[in-house]
């Protein structure tokens, strides 16, 4: 029984308007009569409203495959011919073959790499387990150590066909403890007197003495202040100051980890005077940033961002230092100031991280969940990938299974439809990194399915974000294509995008089906690895959508990733078009 789809298009000239499009459920193909119409004002239910300019025509025309082809502007000339290779990472290929499209995981997974996972085999195990991005934290380890990790991830991608991206995370200039003289941790017992000092020590460090990286520390703290390690994992009270040494009594025992973050509180509020004067990007950070640019990392995550200024400054520096690299700058939201200036920071950044570790040390812990929800929602509105980070599965540093509370925390982050989840200590120095990763994966799949089956009608209302008419065409096309994909229950969305923008506009709509994103450069492909629901492929393609589609179909069918009859909606940023068709 054919089902009529109506596209109502009004045109300045009378009479000519689009009429019926018949959609036959059986052959799953759309057919229609070719009626070119200049689209002026009325919305087309599928492509939606506000394409006003008369210079833009919306053509509904036959595309030889009985498919519908909406082109919002005449096709431009575009790229060159191509090789017939399609690059897809091995994990995705296996998942698609095993579970089919609809159950492919949408939420991306970031793993912090540390001593527990820096070996080639350990990195491979994480990649097989679904790691999309490997994070290196410059707060720890040497540049040489991090370079080795980067090289191993690159080798993994080369040899095994993965597309694991690299995220470099700056140390930042907040106050933290030094190393513990090589010890992996130190236990502070209740009532013990510890010395925090700005002195630096060679090999022999007196017992219960901790060096602090902030020279102003001994001046700024006052007797009576409360000193928090890692946001309250251990607490001390300042009892005496002797020159560079600050004597503190342990009031809340716990484990001291190397280079743990220090904050100090006076009369119940965070002391930030001089601290606030510290630069967001320290001199060491600039050296690390040069290192990251030289190593070609995909993302640079900036710690303790306080304003949009530092992001703009860094982006212009990166642009000047490396013309062609498109390193994505992620703002870590982990201080009171970053919450105060949240919108401007996210607007200026390419993405954000809810860095709950330090955030929970700077604001009362009970405010972290609502701050997380606010940050995730704002990023989604502004079309910026957002990562929920830290302590998701903290107990799995020591235990092979998570607590119920941790599973609920992960579920909530997936329910909020964050783009990505991040493991910190769990994968950097924990005993069960692969188990922790598999918990993230299984919880993601479960909540994503819950969304598709029970909640997708609650898709978030997305405000218009385009800053030009051309951009608004792309935005309208993606919003419509995502809606069509849900209404027609298509198996997948295909998007052909050089810059990745069209792919992220589709990801922003959180459609029920996965989004196959084809792009011509490896760096854009890796960058798309952080965005919800995108399965990035590298493929040389032209502006001839027919040949792009035919080649893509044959390449993916040959790899058993799609099959004839699958229903696909294809979107392209070159032609600004939507096509609905069955895989031949
Ligand atoms: N490159 C590294 N070398 C050694 N230890 C690391 C490294 N990266 C992370 N770690 C360990 O894992 C813990 C959690 O990692 P992360 O959350 O990134 O750092 P932090 O908690 O110090 O901000 C760190 O405190 C540190 O003990
Ligand atoms: C991710 C965070 O930053 P870092 O681990 O670098 O302190 C955090 O504070 O949660
Ligand atoms: K850091
Ligand atoms: Mg932090």
TrEMBL record:
Protein's GO biological process: glycolytic process
Pathway in which this enzyme or protein is active: Carbohydrate degradation; glycolysis; pyruvate from D-glyceraldehyde 3-phosphate: step 5/5
Ranges for domain Pyruvate kinase barrel: 105-436
EC number: 2.7.1.40
Keywords carried by this UniProt record: ATP-binding, Chloroplast, Glycolysis, Kinase, Magnesium, Metal-binding, Nucleotide-binding, Plastid, Potassium, Pyruvate, Transferase, Transit peptide
Cellular component per GO, a single term: chloroplast stroma
Gene Ontology MF terms: ATP binding; kinase activity; magnesium ion binding; potassium ion binding; pyruvate kinase activity
One Pfam family matching this protein: PK
PROSITE patterns listed in its UniProt record: PYRUVATE_KINASE
Cofactor: Mg(2+); K(+)
Localization terms from the record: Plastid, Chloroplast
Domain Pyruvate kinase C-terminal: 475-574
Catalytic reaction equation(s): pyruvate + ATP = phosphoenolpyruvate + ADP + H(+)
Keyword Phosphoprotein recorded: no
Broad class of where this protein is predominantly found: plastid
Family: Belongs to the pyruvate kinase family.
NCBIfam families xrefs: pyruv_kin
Annotated protein name in UniProt: Pyruvate kinase
Gene name of the record: LOC104613264
């Amino acid at each position: 029984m054919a089902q009529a789809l109506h596209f109502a298009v009004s045109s300045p000239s009378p009479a000519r308007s689009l009429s019926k499009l018949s959609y036959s459920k059986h052959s799953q193909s759309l057919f229609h009569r070719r009626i070119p119409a200049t689209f002026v004002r009325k919305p087309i239910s599928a492509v939606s409203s506000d394409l006003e300019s008369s210079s833009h025509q919306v053509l509904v025309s036959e595309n030889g495959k009985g498919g519908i082809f909406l082109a919002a502007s005449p096709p431009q000339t575009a790229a060159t011919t191509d090789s017939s290779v399609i690059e897809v990472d091995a994990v995705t290929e296996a998942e698609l073959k095993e579970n089919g499209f609809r159950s492919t995981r949408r939420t991306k997974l970031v793993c912090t790499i540390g001593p527990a996972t820096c070996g080639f085999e350990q990195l491979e195990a994480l990649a097989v387990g679904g790691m999309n991005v490997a994070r290196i934290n410059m707060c720890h380890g040497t540049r040489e150590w991090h370079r080795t990790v980067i090289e191993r991830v690159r080798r993994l991608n080369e040899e095994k066909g993965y597309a694991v991206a690299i995220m470099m995370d700056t140390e930042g200039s907040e106050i933290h403890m030094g190393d513990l003289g090589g010890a992996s941790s130190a236990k502070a017992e209740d009532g013990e007197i510890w010395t925090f000092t700005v002195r630096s020590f060679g090999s022999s460090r007196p017992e219960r003495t901790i060096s602090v990286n902030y020279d102003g520390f001994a001046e700024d703290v006052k007797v009576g202040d409360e000193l928090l390690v890692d946001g309250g994992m251990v607490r001390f009270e300042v009892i005496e100051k002797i020159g560079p040494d600050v004597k503190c009594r342990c009031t809340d025992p716990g484990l001291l980890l190397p280079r743990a973050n220090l904050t100090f509180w006076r009369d119940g509020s965070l002391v930030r005077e001089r601290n606030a004067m510290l630069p967001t990007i320290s001199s060491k950070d600039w050296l690390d940033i040069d290192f990251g640019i030289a190593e070609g990392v995909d993302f640079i995550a900036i710690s303790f961002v306080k304003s949009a200024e530092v992001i703009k400054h860094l982006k212009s520096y990166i642009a000047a230092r490396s013309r062609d690299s498109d390193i994505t700058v992620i703002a870590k939201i982990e201080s009171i100031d970053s919450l105060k200036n949240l919108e401007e920071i996210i607007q200026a950044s390419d993405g954000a991280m809810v860095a709950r570790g330090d955030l929970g040390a700077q604001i009362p812990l009970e405010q972290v969940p609502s701050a997380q929800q606010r940050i995730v929602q704002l990023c989604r509105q502004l079309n910026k990938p957002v990562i929920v980070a830290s302590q998701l599965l903290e107990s799995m540093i020591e235990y092979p299974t998570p607590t119920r509370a941790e599973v609920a925390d992960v579920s909530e982050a997936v329910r909020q439809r964050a783009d990505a989840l991040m493991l910190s200590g769990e994968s950097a120095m924990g005993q069960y990194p692969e188990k922790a990763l598999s918990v993230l994966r299984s919880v993601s799949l479960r909540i994503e399915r819950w969304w598709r089956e029970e909640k997708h009608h609650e898709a978030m209302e997305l405000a218009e974000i385009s800053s030009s008419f051309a951009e608004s065409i792309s935005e309208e096309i993606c919003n419509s294509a995502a809606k069509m994909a849900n209404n027609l229950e298509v198996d997948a969305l295909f998007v052909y995008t050089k810059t990745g923008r069209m792919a992220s506009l589709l990801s922003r709509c959180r459609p029920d089906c996965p989004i196959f994103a084809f792009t011509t450069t490896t760096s854009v492909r890796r960058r798309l690895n952080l965005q919800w629901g995108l399965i990035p492929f590298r493929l040389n393609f032209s502006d001839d959508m027919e040949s792009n589609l035919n080649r893509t179909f044959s390449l993916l069918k040959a790899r058993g990733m799609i099959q004839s009859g699958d229903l696909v909606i294809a979107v392209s940023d070159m032609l600004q078009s939507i096509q609905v068709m069955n895989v031949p």
